[in-house]
Design goal:
The complex is a heterodimer of chains A (141) and B (114). With 141 residues, chain A is of the alpha+beta class. Chain A is 33% helix and 25% strand. The longest helix of chain A has 22 residues, at 37-58. In chain B, 39% of the residues are buried. The chains are: A alpha+beta (141), B alpha/beta (114).
């Protein structure tokens, strides 16, 4: 039997607080798929941070812009793409780790995301103009 | 605004001041949290503890506030302490190495039972 992906999509305004909607949706889908509760919490935080990055950096918190959150649901894999409208330009090529010793907290969001999901990074945008960030978690059976 | 407003409540137990953080801990709560901390310091307690048991959502802006307070405390040669955070947020705090600057406990009774 061939695998068929299912897609769920929401668009949220670039307004702080709306990332919680994307969080809850991602959590609900991950729960339906059978992910363990700790992984669901990890995913929710990762999605919230990705949305906040899109709002703040990608969309410059312009209230007229939106963040697109696309969930690609397979049997054993959930991929979530977060896309902004590119008002803030391209993301940096490298994201050094935040360093509390040197009191550098920049890029803390991306650092946290990368440690909470199986795969994370910017991908070539295939959903229109703007930056597209993808997070993937795999269901281990 | 979809974020729950950050509210604080101060309690004194013996020589410790506990700051209960209620609601979401985000950048929008910065002034509220910092004001509560400043108020706690006025009575010169031996310990200042933040209770995260009533917070549901903490984002990186909120974590940054807590880190900045922890570093401010360290510069003044004392440490702030946290208790009540969920296992998930404890993991996130450990990811950003907050335990280097702040003591963490699971519960209030564990924190105070020294």
């Amino acid at each position: 039997m061939s695998k068929k992906s299912h897609f769920v999509e929401i668009r949220i305004p670039s307004e702080l607080g709306y990332e919680k909607m994307a969080m809850k949706l991602a959590g609900a889908v991950a729960q339906k798929m059978g992910f363990a509760s700790d992984r669901i919490e990890d995913l929710k935080t990762a999605v919230a941070e990705a949305c906040l990055n899109a709002m703040e950096h990608g969309n410059q918190l312009d209230a007229s812009t939106q963040v697109l959150v696309l969930l690609n649901i397979d049997d054993d894999r959930l991929a979530i793409d977060v896309k902004d409208e590119g008002r803030g330009g391209a993301p940096p090529e490298r994201f050094p780790e935040p360093d509390l010793h040197r009191k550098t907290l920049r890029h803390m969001g991306i650092y946290i995301i990368r440690n909470l999901v199986d795969e994370a990074g910017f991908v070539e945008p295939d959903l229109g103009k703007g930056n597209q960030f993808r997070m993937v978690i795999h269901l281990q059976r | 605004m979809l974020n729950k407003k950050t509210e604080t409540r101060l309690r004194r137990i013996d020589k410790a001041i506990i700051i209960d953080l209620i609601g979401d801990v985000t950048g929008q709560g910065a002034e509220t949290i910092k004001s509560a901390y400043a108020e706690a310091l006025q009575s010169k307690p031996e310990r200042v503890l933040f209770n995260l048991g009533d917070t549901e959502y903490i984002n990186t802006s909120g974590i940054a506030i807590l880190i900045s307070i922890a570093m401010e405390a360290e510069n003044a040669e004392h440490k702030i302490e946290f208790f009540g955070m969920s296992a998930h947020y404890r993991k996130v705090f450990e990811l950003v190495r907050l335990p280097l600057y702040a003591q963490m406990y699971q519960t209030e009774s564990e924190a105070l039972d020294l």
